[in-house]
Task: structure prediction
Amino acid sequence: MTAQPMPCMTLAEVNDFLAREFPQIDVGRSMIVQEVGSMSARLRLVASDQNLRPGGTISGPAMFALADVALYVAILAQIGPVALAVTINMNINFLRRPLAGDLIGDCRLLKLGKRLAVGEVSLHLPGDADPVAHAVGSYSIPPR
Amino acid sequence: MTAQPMPCMTLAEVNDFLAREFPQIDVGRSMIVQEVGSMSARLRLVASDQNLRPGGTISGPAMFALADVALYVAILAQIGPVALAVTINMNINFLRRPLAGDLIGDCRLLKLGKRLAVGEVSLHLPGDADPVAHAVGSYSIPPR
Amino acid sequence: MTAQPMPCMTLAEVNDFLAREFPQIDVGRSMIVQEVGSMSARLRLVASDQNLRPGGTISGPAMFALADVALYVAILAQIGPVALAVTINMNINFLRRPLAGDLIGDCRLLKLGKRLAVGEVSLHLPGDADPVAHAVGSYSIPPR
Amino acid sequence: MTAQPMPCMTLAEVNDFLAREFPQIDVGRSMIVQEVGSMSARLRLVASDQNLRPGGTISGPAMFALADVALYVAILAQIGPVALAVTINMNINFLRRPLAGDLIGDCRLLKLGKRLAVGEVSLHLPGDADPVAHAVGSYSIPPR
Result:
């Protein structure tokens, strides 16, 4: 396997950038970037009334948002804060009904090209590797 | 082509059911069921601060939610209010950056089986057939 | 809706190009381009021992190939024979078990950008609008 | 994480079953089941004129077939040879142009329910972990 490229942003830099550029994600409160690594990122979605459904399960749109932001963060950490990447495709499978509580999104980039990045995201409860949902998504990367 | 089955719920019945069973969708305010037809449904997502991004475009999670609910409504109208269907897969392509404003979700069911329903949803601005996003999703239908 | 762009290749030109550049598709025998239109194409997959499964149903890979080539042809007719486009994503839902016989692939482009094209393909028996499968796919278009 | 269930079929039993029931897959020649494990399977697609494109790269339909059969084998080994499972959805991302040669399909089941199984498949060259394609698919499992 080819050597994995290292991220060019630290965890603190990613959190600062998101807080500044994407206030709607509410980084540090509703969504927390916990780790960035080589071609990877781990985010935590904090349970709140806004992302829970009656019955206490996390809503589909909240899981979509977690997967989408996790993929964005993994790309951002790798290529730096200049690029304005946009989601072009997201495919998500809902596997189990998640219980109430925080949800972890573990993203692994499958491809990081000049124009296109593809990654998969496993959504699971903290401390439980069995995914409640799994997503694969693509971002278009503008010319740099 | 085989004859299309008619829906067994009226528009008013669908709206009543959603308002009662899914208060989080906020039917009648943030999302409005505008039509139910044979194997089809049309919903309107009302623009609001909650579903807009800086720059005035509708957020990805809000588009996901519109597609997901449009598919649910098309199934519900066809099989009636008893079934508790759950999303198992959603694949969404983001095609154009939507301007601020309401968004229409037009769902057409491709399959309505005993255990599985599949449909496509075109997301477009009112009065503009060019889609800003397009989704295909599946629901699991529990035994009746 | 914005005016639909007209294709810049005729049906004969598309068939000639495919026969010359993609001999493995076996255009004119196993796969026939029947129509090209504005942002659309119709292909026919001819039933043969190679694409049938025991029981007489068309194989999944043959349906994938029909969807993939139909999308490619719709793009090709629109942008001309120079571009070397490659599939980047294909999402396919299998809806009904197809009977033995030819299969039609009707493609409609949802987006034709400078770098990315997205289209949907309905796969159905000749004369029957009910799809046996439905695909949505993306092609990357190289700089021209 | 919950304990992973063990497969109930051996590698030899899987190969025998496929050779008997699915002669069109040509198991042992064009496709070889190399391993079955807990919720997993590894298959090898043997390069041949039939699955190569001009230029020597493996065709999209051949990669689709490898992903589809790898997912089927992972399910089969886990639930036994009685079930007649059918593909309901396959989402495949093409990441890199594969060189000529054999291709490995590594499947990992994400969910194995009573009615639905979901798995992901990484397609890569032997000895190279970087995937050339990645697929996520679903099978419907009939009542047993």
